[in-house]
Design brief:
There is one protein chain. Helix 2 crosses helix 3 and helix 6 packs antiparallel against helix 9. 80% of the residues lie in helices and 0% in strands. About 7% of the residues have low confidence. The protein has two domains: 75 residues, no CATH class; 120 residues. It is mainly α and 213 residues long. The chain has nine helices and no strands.
């Protein structure tokens, strides 16, 4: 059995809810049918409450005689988009690790293939794979630093405070104690430097192959 106070609290809650529902319905009544239809179809549950959609449904039913179907929840669409984005493998990971996987497979297959010292095909294949191991990341970082410099500066500026807060010692060591305003430009220079180093490594592999042949 509920006490008298609990009954009063329940009645007060129902009264407040009904007052809120009437207020929401009155506000929706002031809107035109086209605007209500747009809100109803968009179905943005982050912007509008369930009570608002219930009021819109009743008003459209009174005015139009029927209510069109709604789109998927905006909040759900955003969640699905985040899941889809997180499930994709970044291009940088593919570019950097795909040649490494090829080299690793060749090393694992050496006992099976059992190449002889005079087997030129295996040497060519190995040095070509090593050249790709350096060239692909090198050209990717070069393209990124040259054509996506604004994006790099923007990302570095956004991520620097998070990194500084999470690992202040590592942040300072990584940035060589540079002032925070120089960190984005330092990141851009580092990416360009890695590009040069990787491309040089690829050239060296090609030179070794030419000397061998």
């Amino acid at each position: 059995m509920l006490s008298i106070n609990e009954h009063k609290e329940i009645q007060m809650t129902h009264k407040q809810e009904s007052t809120l529902s009437r207020s929401i319905r009155s506000n929706m009544q002031l809107k035109g049918s086209d605007e209500l239809l747009a809100i109803w179809k968009k179905n943005d549950r982050l912007e509008w409450s369930d009570e608002a959609f219930a009021a819109i449904h009743d008003i459209l039913l009174e005015r139009l005689g029927n209510v069109p179907p709604q789109n998927e929840h905006v909040s759900r669409r955003r969640h699905n988009k985040k899941v889809a984005q997180s499930s994709k493998i970044p291009l940088s990971v593919i570019v950097i690790f795909s040649p490494a996987v090829l080299v690793f497979l060749l090393i694992l297959l050496m006992p099976v293939l059992n190449p002889e010292p005079e087997d030129i095909w295996f040497t060519v294949l190995m040095f070509t794979s090593l050249a790709l191991f350096f060239f692909l990341p090198g050209f990717y970082f070069g393209w990124w630093s040259f054509f996506q410099s604004k994006e790099i500066l923007k990302r570095a500026a956004e991520n620097a405070p998070k990194l500084k807060k999470a690992s202040p010692i590592f942040y300072r060591l990584y940035t060589y104690f540079l002032p925070d305003r120089f960190v984005p430009y330092y990141s851009l220079v580092m990416i360009g430097f890695m590009s040069i180093i990787c491309i040089y490594g690829g050239i060296r592999m090609i030179m070794f192959l030419i000397d061998f042949l």
